[in-house]
Design a protein that fits this description.
Elements: H1 2-11, H2 13-28, H3 37-61, H4 63-66, H5 84-105, H6 108-129, H7 136-140, H8 146-156, H9 161-184, H10 186-191, H11 197-201, H12 203-221, H13 236-256, H14 261-284
The structure holds protoporphyrin IX containing FE and farnesyl diphosphate.
GO molecular function: protoheme IX farnesyltransferase activity
Function: Converts heme B (protoheme IX) to heme O by substitution of the vinyl group on carbon 2 of heme B porphyrin ring with a hydroxyethyl farnesyl side group.
GO cellular component, one term: plasma membrane
Length: about 290
């Protein structure tokens, strides 16, 4: 049992679940989506394989720094020089199966969007940006937008204002999501020379940029009020306003509590809740 749980650790399954929820949300928003359960199943399967594969390649590439960081060093029990070859082969097989399944049984555009998420996470973020610039997670955050484009394209073979809105919502959400977490691991990032924002500019400046990014995210989340063609269901706006207010409370609190790291951890935790609840409200509405 521990072999399976350890293997799941290097696939970052908890992240993949929220990534899948992004794709499912975009899929559900397409009129008539309920009559295509098989396409939805294939979308989730292809996206899950790609996301897990990307996470495995990320962990293989980051083996040198992951052993130096408290949060990630336990991965070496599963991923180490002895198992790297096997895990590389499994990850490679997963992304190939993902691309074949999505391109053959859904459509090429969806397969390209899923593959785009894989490429942007593995190459743009992990290999090119992560160890070079404090903009790493801002630009690398586009990886999280691809599932929304894939979810809409699975049934329409196209892009829309709605799928673009969802893609950029995840993109805008990512810095608030990750910078709160990174503050709790700032010493790790300094030790491994990864230029995450708090490791370079300090905690107070990072809190400033978290608040700025969150204010922009809040205004962005309410854009459907101004763009009628982005139809997310009646409950979206009122729930978004409530979630925006609570998110702002969580991201401002550290500044009023002497930048105590536990409040950044709470803000990180709520940021995941924030995105999950906004997505679930959109998914559940058509069923009520
Ligand atoms: C470049 C963009 C991103 C970065 C750098 C990032 C970074 C991280 C890191 C370092 C963790 C902690 C993982 C661990 O300790 O094992 C994490 C957790 C997580 N991330 Fe992100 N993330 C990004 C984008 C996303 C996206 C797009 C999603 C989903 C839409 C997402 C969802 C999650 C979830 C659900 C967790 C687990 C939270 C928990 O364990 O409670 N992340 N992220
Ligand atoms: C459609 C598709 C495949 C999309 C992929 C999107 C995706 C998996 C985004 C997640 C990005 C992420 C968790 C980065 C963290 O890596 P890190 O190296 O900073 O985290 P670590 O230090 O925990 O390894």
């Amino acid at each position: 049992m521990s072999k399976i749980t350890n293997f799941m650790k290097i696939t970052k399954l908890e992240i993949t679940i929220l990534i899948d929820l992004v794709a499912i949300t975009a899929f559900i928003l397409v009129p008539g989506s309920f009559s295509h359960p098989l396409i939805l199943f294939l979308l989730i399967l292809s996206g899950t394989l790609a996301s897990m594969s990307a996470s495995m390649f990320n962990n293989i590439y980051d083996m040198d720094i992951d052993t130096k960081m408290k949060r990630t060093r336990s991965r070496s029990s599963t991923l180490n020089p002895g198992t790297r070859g096997l895990i590389f082969s499994i990850a490679a097989a997963m992304i190939v199966v993902s691309f074949v399944l999505s391109s053959v049984f859904i459509n090429l555009l969806t397969a390209l969007f899923i593959f785009g998420g894989f490429l942007s996470y593995v190459f743009l973020y992990t290999i090119f940006l992560k160890r070079r610039t404090t903009w790493n997670i801002v630009i690398g955050g586009i990886a999280g937008g691809f599932p929304a484009l894939a979810g809409w394209a699975a049934l329409t073979n196209s892009v829309s204002f709605t799928s673009l809105f969802l893609a950029f919502l995840v993109f805008m959400w990512t810095p608030t999501h990750f910078w709160n977490l990174s503050i709790n691991n700032v010493d790790d990032y300094k030790a491994s020379h990864v230029p995450m924002l708090p490791a370079i500019v300090g905690i107070k400046k990072t809190e400033f940029w978290i608040v700025i990014n969150t204010v922009i995210l809040i205004f962005y989340s309410l854009i459907p009020l101004l763009v009628p063609s982005i139809k997310l269901g009646l409950p979206y706006i009122p729930i978004a306003i409530i979630m925006d207010i609570i998110l702002l409370y969580y991201v401002l609190k550290p500044a009023f509590r002497l930048y105590d790291k536990k409040y950044f951890r709470k803000a990180f935790g709520f940021s995941n809740m924030y995105l999950m609840i906004l997505l679930l409200v959109i998914i559940i509405y058509p069923f009520i």
